[in-house]
Amino acid sequence: MGVAGPPGPVMDRDEVDRALARLGAEHEAIETSLLALQDHAGRRLLEGAQLTGTTRERWSSAEQAITLLWTYFDAYAAALRTAREVRSRRRWPNRDDLVELTDLLRGESVTVAPGASTGGGSPSITGPAKLSERFTLAALVERMNELYASSLDMVVAADVVWSALPARIDLLAAELGRTRQLAHSVGVRPGEHPAGDDLEQITGALTRLREQVVSDPLAYWQRAHGSSAPGGGRPDTTAYDREARALEDVRREIEAVLTVRQDAEARLGRLRDVLSRADRTLAEARSARGEVLAKIAASEVPAVSGPPTALQEQLAAAADYRRHGQWHRLSPLLESLESKAEDELLRARESLTAVTAPLAVRAELRGRLDAYKAKVARLGFAEDPFLVERYDAARRMLWSAPCDLRVAEEAVLRYQRAAADVLAAPTEQRGES
User: Fold this and answer.
1) What angle do CA 222, 228, 232 make, to 5 degrees?
2) pTM, whole model, 2 decimals?
3) Stretch 291-306: mean pLDDT
4) Helices 95-106 and 137-185, packing angle to 10 deg
5) Domain ranges in the chain?
6) Among 107, 109, 77, which Cα is nearest to 6's?
7) Is 390 in contact with 415 (CB distance < 8 Å)?
8) Is 399 helix (H, G, I), strand (E, B) or coil?
9) Residue 223 — φ and ψ, nearest 5°?
């Protein structure tokens, strides 16, 4: 939509003709714009919708603005028609004609009927009510541009939201329906599983969101910062995105339950194996403890606990869930059992290590004693009476039952020191010679 030229002195014939041509082009452009607005899909939807909130308030003002636009346009067309009639009186207009045309084309020649310029007294459009209002053609075009831009902005914004969000909500609702069916197939239902409760919450939220978008689309419109073009902005998808993320979280959880259904038997088998290994390790620890108590004296040997019956009971419950297809109950139980079973196996191994520690100490002392004996024999002192005596004393302690590890370790150290002294003596004698 264009803007007429500014007022000025008396126009000549060429200026008048150019102004009329420009005003005629503007008339056609304005009419085309108004007809397009009248036929806009968004405007038709707004007329037939049950609106609420922000959209209802803005559409009430926009309807008055559109009505006022046509009133202004009719006044503009009438003024242009009058100017054309004056110009058509003679081929070469005289000065009186030119003065009249200048006043028509540049002066405040357009009078809007009482009440029309206020849109029925609504101050939101043109201010307080007036008896009548006069415009130049340029000012009238500027006023129409303002009303057209604000009306089109409102219509386009509503239409964009209606074109985008309800369709996306419907697609998400369809995905929600498929997810709910899948959830029911694995026993995920409201009141029985948190994911079932989440699905109910998402269903209610999407239903409310769609109703609100349809009745108040402008509540879900974000205007682009710095944009003055009609419809400059985008739909606000914050609420939609939140529910889409929630549905995705539920879908992943249900897929995890489905995975449990597919590999439940294998996981139960691995659990049985881990717990069986833990039981065997504890049995070995109990047997080793009896051996340690019989063979090692003056040593604290920790007690060995029995296998945890709670884990076996939970394992039996997991197998029962699998038999009855209660996958939503089996999923968290399997995860808990897998962690506890690994902890139990680790505890059993640590118990065996703690129980057999004295035997390991005795084995280390025996190995150390034999290693020194071999070294002494290699250097030709195997028959040394002093070393033989010390070796036999240490060996009797290490191979007797029960073995006092503290005393046996001191005997091994005495043999080590004696061997070191004997082995060092020839070197010192060579040094003295």
Assistant:
1) 35
2) 0.58
3) 76
4) 30
5) 13-156, 158-258, 261-355, 359-432
6) 107
7) yes
8) coil
9) -75, 140
